[in-house]
Amino acid sequence: MHSKTEVKNVLESAGFSRSNQYYVVQQGKIASLTLMKGSERLDLLRDIDGTRVYEDRRKDSLKIVTKTGAANKMKQIDQVVQYFKERLRELDEEKEELKKYQQLDKQRR
């Protein structure tokens, strides 16, 4: 069983859309089609065959992927920064221990 939205999406991707006005050719439409520029015809064909719906969804998906990718990168950067902070703290502790050892060694001699 498919939802109404799923069926609508499939039909739109196949070029059947409520907003598609090219199922019935209106008077004067043929003349205007012949006078169109190449880019306008391409846009018209994209509207008719449903490619525009695909392109719009693709753009939306890319935006989402870009946002998620940036969020993931920020998370990774935060993890690296946290690791370096922890490592720096450990090295500071080791430095203090080394100073104490050197002082004790100096006193012993």
TrEMBL record:
<protein>
    <submittedName>
        <fullName>Uncharacterized protein</fullName>
    </submittedName>
</protein>
<feature type="coiled-coil region">
    <location>
        <begin position="74"/>
        <end position="104"/>
    </location>
</feature>
<keyword id="KW-0175">Coiled coil</keyword>
<dbReference type="InterPro" id="IPR027417">
    <property type="entry name" value="P-loop_NTPase"/>
</dbReference>
